[in-house]
Design brief:
Helix content: 10-25%
Number of domains: 1
CATH class: Mainly Beta
Strand content: 35-45%
Distance between the termini: 79 Å
Largest sheet: 4 strands, antiparallel
Structural class: mainly beta
Radius of gyration: 20 Å
Number of helices: 1
Order of helices and strands: HEEEEEEEEEEE
Number of strands: 11
CATH architecture: Sandwich
Strand order of the largest sheet: 1-2-3-6
Shape: elongated
């Protein structure tokens, strides 16, 4: 009986220790905004992911509002389940776009926001930005089309 309990406790400990965490950070290759004490947001261009971190336990959601040079967006990635962890949002951004006779790398532009949904209407507060990063990984210069 003691052996069965020990084995069961070991199995439970293994599950708890190997469970994924909600606060996984973006990869080191990501381009991030500075932490403005409320929101930090990043772009991982290799996986077309944006990451949002809520740094302030104030009850408001942390958000990234983005657009692209190629005309994509605006879009939102909203972190609404508490402070101290990251949220990742997956997209399929266009890596390059045509402007006149040139094909150029696409750029993501974003600003950091907080959203307080306890107010009516929802209270959207701009915190910081504009930040930018190339979506193409690695980014190449514009090329002239012939």
């Amino acid at each position: 009986m003691v052996r069965k309990i020990a084995v069961s406790l070991s199995a439970i400990a293994l599950v708890v220790l190997t469970a994924p965490t909600a606060s996984a950070a973006p990869p080191s290759r990501a381009t991030c905004s500075p932490n403005d004490n409320y929101v930090k947001a990043c772009l991982d261009p290799y996986n077309d992911q944006v990451w949002v971190y809520d740094a302030e336990p104030d009850g408001a959601s942390a958000a990234m509002r983005w657009t692209t040079a190629a005309g994509g967006g605006p879009g939102w990635c909203v972190k609404s389940n508490g402070a101290g962890t990251w949220k990742v949002c997956d997209y399929d951004f266009v890596e390059r776009y045509t402007a006149g006779d040139r094909t150029c790398p696409n750029v993501l532009y974003w600003g950091n926001w907080t959203i307080d949904r306890s107010r009516t209407p929802d209270d959207y507060d701009y915190i910081s930005g504009t930040y930018s990063a190339y979506i193409e990984y690695p980014a190449r210069n514009c090329t002239i089309r012939v």
